[in-house]
Amino acid sequence: MKRLYAFLLTVAFAAIALTGTSFAAEAKNPEEVFIFNGEDWVLQSGAETEGERGAVVAAEGVWWYAVNPETEAAAKGLERGILLYDANAESGKAYTFLPTTEEQARVELVMFSPDKKRMVVRCNLNRFASGLYVYDVATLELENSFWSRGDIWFVSNVRFVFTLVDTKVKRPETAAMWATSAAIYEIADKKGYVVLKGASATESFTVTGVDQDQNLVNILVTSVKSAKDWEDIEKQQESEITVEVPAAG
User: Fold this and answer.
1) How many Å apart are CA 6 and CA 12, to the nearest integer?
2) What is the end-to-end Cα distance of the chain in Å, rounded?
3) Number of helices (H) and strands (E), helices first, in the chain?
4) Helix then strand then coil, % of the chain, to nearest 5
5) Cα–Cα distances in angstroms (integers) from residue 25 to residues 18, 77, 166, in the given order
6) How far apart are the C-alpha atoms of 130 and 96, rounded to whole Å?
7) What is the pTM of this model?
8) Are 177 and 238 in contact, with CB atoms under 8 Å apart?
9) What is the pLDDT of residues 142-163, one digit of tens each?
10) Between β-strands 203-211 and 81-86, what pairing exists: parallel, antiparallel or unpaired?
11) What is the DSSP letter of 247?
């Protein structure tokens, strides 16, 4: 009986090992599972896909798809990341895959710089903030990352303005919000950005756009008379200002 029991255990473990090996062998590259058919992302079989997707901003003919094995059955066994399709690429080089972290699971936007040398990926982190991740397109290496809110606007091939979630400035927990500053991406700065208008105990600044002709950044100012007033939206006042885009550092 003991010998039979030992034999059955051996068979069971062998079956488990074989199943694991078979599963690993079935793991494929994302472009072998997901394809862009000229109109939308589909599975190789032609079936519909479930992931987030979109056109890459400022990159005509380039589309992105968020590969997430935790939320899509077809992606099981694949690495989490962003699959890019470039309709203008050479044959056999149309697809590029950018691995991402768990923090980047909810991709919202993929955007190229005007010279196509940098790529900005925006991911939803929570209901108060998004993450901005800046990559070198040639190497796909991460240059910088920040917590932010809202959109970004490029003001040159390298620099863009954005709303920075400023965790150094505290807000009352009951206010359910973080302080924000208007900032510009500056690769020469050790932080990766320069603050244009910095949040304070009683003020927050949100970038709302740029005036390229006037070289100005449009900013929404939200203010209160006292820090405790952030808890009451009725006591928050809004106004608009502009600041000049500074010379590159």
Assistant:
1) 10
2) 80
3) 1, 16
4) 20, 40, 40
5) 10, 10, 46
6) 24
7) 0.84
8) no
9) 999 999 999 999 999 999 999 9
10) unpaired
11) P
